[in-house]
Amino acid sequence: xxxxxxxxxxxxxxxxxxxxxxxxxxxxxxxxxxxxxxxxxxxxxxxxxxxxxxxxxxxxxxxxxxxxxxxxxxxxxxxxxxxxxxxxxxxxxxxxxxxxxxxxxxxxxxxxxxxxxxxxxxxxxxxxxxxxxxxxxxxxxxxxxxxxxxxxxxxxxxxxxxxxxxxxxxx
Amino acid sequence: xxxxxxxxxxxxxxxxxxxxxxxxxxxxxxxxxxxxxxxxxxxxxxxxxxxxxxxxxxxxxxxxxxxxxxxxxxxxxxxxxxxxxxxxxxxxxxxxxxxxxxxxxxxxxxxxxxxxxxxxxxxxxxxxxxxxxxxxxxxxxxxxxxxxxxxxxxxxxxxxxxxxxxxxxxxxxxxxxxxxxxxxxxxxxxxxxxx
Lengths: 171, 195
Description:
The complex is a heterodimer. Chain A is mostly helical.
């Protein structure tokens, strides 16, 4: 990823699709857990904002950027309720049925329900750590919160999730 | 299963279209859709700025687009409202309120194209007339080049521009044969259109 920021600083249009390919799955996964059905629109809008921002920054700034936490800062700022009027833009033709994603497994739905019961800061920290796979430093940067707070939020979130599962088992 | 492992199980593939939609929205790629016209199916390319190319819908359209514009073109749905505008623009032979992306066209040629859009349906004008209207009397040859390189034929009706001696002249969208078909479909007098 470090190498990619240097490349982006040299030729944005050439390398931006590489950035999308590198981050689209984790971005979509995290947004799916945080924003449900809006994930695809939000992921697209995140990348569009990123492209526009990268185009406006001086090359030396782009070359030294930490792209993963930066992308997440954009995604989280777009926010859960920020549905965009994306139909002003062209959209790629839907692929055939065999190319469509499988329906959500029951287990994933259950986990998304549990995650929604966490407070927003804790949910974000847990998802960025354990669904997306960012390290704590990256999460602290993405969320603009102190490292210690982020670690505490993740631990608190995992505890709450464990408690929820125990309570479900008892029922 | 522990909580951490279960959360990691929520990772999944992004929708297959996401990368294409990002490319379309950023302008790194254009979209295109095929429309009917009197000269057969045509591929119409578009991006957030406007319609960027019209060509006969042939197999090499995507590679021709890449070669001419330096970016990919992907089969796509036009922005909301544009589908009807594109159909209408092809039917009437003028852009109407459909935006055009003429970034790669020089200011002079863009002006010539603009003048061409004022020629009424079913009528023709000689190259020299366009040159005069654009304030460049004597630049008829340059007008010919501008017409030959019109990225959006049918919508900018270069088929209504003929040679000063009354012969029909060249046509980039499939040659003289198609130019004649278009003009006759518009009600022009075929006797006026010598080869």
